[in-house]
Amino acid sequence: MLVNIKEAIKLIEEGKILHIAADESLLEQLPKGKWIAGTTPYFITEQGGVTCKDKLFVNEIDCAVDCKITVYDRSNVFNITKDSYHNGMTFLVIPFASDIAVYYSKEAPYSNDLLMNPTVGWITGYDLSTNATAKVYDGSSGKAYNDKAVALHICLPDDKIASLGIVNIFDIDSNAAKIEFPEDTLSVSKCLVNGKEMLFADYILENNIDTQLPLVADYNGTLINVSIKSVSEGNKTVELYAPVFAGEEYRFASPVSNYAASFTEQLQSFKDLNPIFSCNCILNYLYGKLEGKSTPPFAGPVTFGEIAYQLLNQTLVYAVVTDK
Amino acid sequence: MELDSIFKKLIKKDLVYQSDSLGLNLLISRLQRKYFANQTAEELESCLQEMKAFFEKYKMIMGKDLDKLSKLWEG
Questions:
Q1: Which ipTM was obtained for this model?
Q2: What is the DSSP code (8-state) at residue A51?
Q3: A222 and A292, same domain (yes or no)
Q4: How many Å apart are CA A215 and CA A198, to the nearest integer?
Q5: Taking CB atoms and an 8 Å limit, are A165 and B37 in contact across chains?
Q6: Number of domains within chain A
Q7: Contact between A322 and B54 using a beta-carbon 8 Å cutoff
Q8: Which residues pair with A22 in a beta bridge?
Q9: In this structure, are A149 and A282 located in the same domain?
Q10: Which of A46, A65, A190, A263 is the most buried (most CB within 10 A)?
Q11: Is residue A65 domain-shared with residue A139, that is, in the same domain?
């Protein structure tokens, strides 16, 4: 829910366990308490998408029976699974353009234990019309970081269990070429296009590929996107927002003519869901012109990357807590 | 034992299975990549243990998947 600063302070002072997203100017005013936060001025609320620097988006985690907040750097970020409660979940916020964000995006898919604990979160951002820096906050100390990740581990009652899900409005264009990569990487040079080796940058440029569309891989029925960050004609490299993996087959997504309508269509099957957290990608927000448009039952921060165990791109991520 | 065989087939891509569980789908893909990078009996066993640990932890909510996987085996 979107609240003003006084309401947010009241919730903290009442001892509520909170996940907060807001502009830095508001987060700096919050008292210490059981909260973590990340910076963004973009939200999708129940009333629609807004850019807002005078309100905070707060998720009150009232299903938790206990919690702890931990700050991580790249040397220990994958301790999150060891630090998590046996029956619980972890909210993770990581600042955009930080070393740890890149490290997490590359390494999370290799982490043996990561899928054993629901870890949900986002890459924090900033107002794109400014030169601000993305930050994360540990509410227990009141400290802000632009180079560390902050996790809120929550413990759930024995009769409850957390699970994560995604909504991906993109579909694989079955007519698009099959693209494979020889190595796991965030920066691509060579690839195989329908089995023929070529430079990925050349393939994109020569075929006028719309790089607003992600590459999509089918993970046993779950479609996972990888968004294109930049294409360098000079260096013949393509930078990605999340890594591609050797052994997976990718295709570019089919074009989406109306993002809001596509979300509405996809969200029909989620209308009875009661998520405790969700977030959506800034690229969906911008390319899809979601300002003023809502995505019920999902509301939350608009993010520079989404985390559902691993880093995802151009995806809506959510967490639910249900009876066992 | 029957379930072990199903899991091994999944890991080796001898069986196709699509779950509604994001975590399970990510796990299957990760184990398939892991196994195909090192196709040894030891790696297969290691992947199998990971799969079993996942199902053990989430057995309360994986009943539907276990049923569907068993039917795949019967089929």
A1: 0.90
A2: E
A3: no
A4: 17
A5: no
A6: 2
A7: no
A8: A39
A9: yes
A10: A263
A11: yes
